Amino acid sequence: MARSPTLAIVGLVVGIPLGVLVGNVVWRHVADSLGILPVAIFPVVALAVTVPCVIALVNLVGFGPARKAARTWPADALSSE
Fold this sequence. Notes:
Mean pLDDT: 89
Helix content: over 70%
Number of strands: 0
Structural class: mainly alpha
Shape: elongated
Strand content: under 5%
């Protein structure tokens, strides 16, 4: 079962919209306090590149420990001595 990519995808699905929403609200308050027009720019290209890069990085980082765990015999891992 691949837990790392699943956790990364859930984090991206929750984090990106929440970050855009909170960032937009904060920017509107800052722009209003400065007296400037609150125009928010949504970085579509940056987010489109970020999603596959995060998933690839999570898979790359988790490859070594997953391979080591797959080669470990359950009896050896459960033995107390």
